[in-house]
């Protein structure tokens, strides 16, 4: 029964990864392309519009932390009409960390969302800017890799009708891969803070770091097969 439940869990995880890669990521890419191709608005839109409107805002309520720290990164932007935009950011720079109370920035609004601010020749995307397909593809890679290994281990267990050290190692590798993915994502996030924000959701760079971590973990599991073993949790 435990094996069947684990097998169903692996299938569900792979299904989720497939949805991310074939539905969510393409939708995000289409949204990004629509944003990049959107024309400038001829007048300030009163409702969410497909055109991009830029306006000068006054900054207040700035919250910023150092790049390597967790915490709120946000500012309140007030337009000439008095409308206030509580705007969040994923990184501290290059604009947010330079702002003080009363500074003025140029904000871009698209589909009713503040997507970008510029000041002193620098630009920074907000948390609500179209992100493209990198993020969903990264998560899909992690889930698919983990789920497929769990499926292989469970199918192998059902075929052999007993647990072997190799089956246990395969299952352990599948369970541990999401932690490798988390470590890789954190490493890229820190790298993006110090170099370029676009690195945070760069799929190919993440894939390189993730595959290197997965290879190291595979070697560790192979070595563990040669070490003296104690009975593991049956599947």
Distance between the termini: 8 Å
How many beta-strand segments?
6
Largest sheet features: 6 strands, antiparallel
- Give the integer mean of the pLDDT values: 87
Question: For the largest beta sheet, what order do the strands appear in spatially?
Answer: 3-2-1-4-5-6
**Cα radius of gyration in angstroms:** 23 Å
Query: What series of H and E elements makes up the topology?
Result: HEEEEEEHHH
Class by alpha and beta content? alpha+beta
What percentage of residues falls in helices of 4 or more residues? 40-55%
pLDDT under 50 segments (min length 5)? none
Strand content: 15-25%
Commentary on this structure:
The chain is α+β, with helices and mostly antiparallel strands. It has a 6-stranded antiparallel sheet, with no helix packed on it. The mean pLDDT is 87. The chain contains 4 helices and 6 strands. Helix 1 packs antiparallel against helix 2, helix 2 runs antiparallel to helix 3 and helix 3 packs antiparallel against helix 4. The chain is elongated, with a radius of gyration of 23 Å. It is 50% helix and 17% strand. A hairpin with a 5-residue loop joins strand 2 and strand 3.
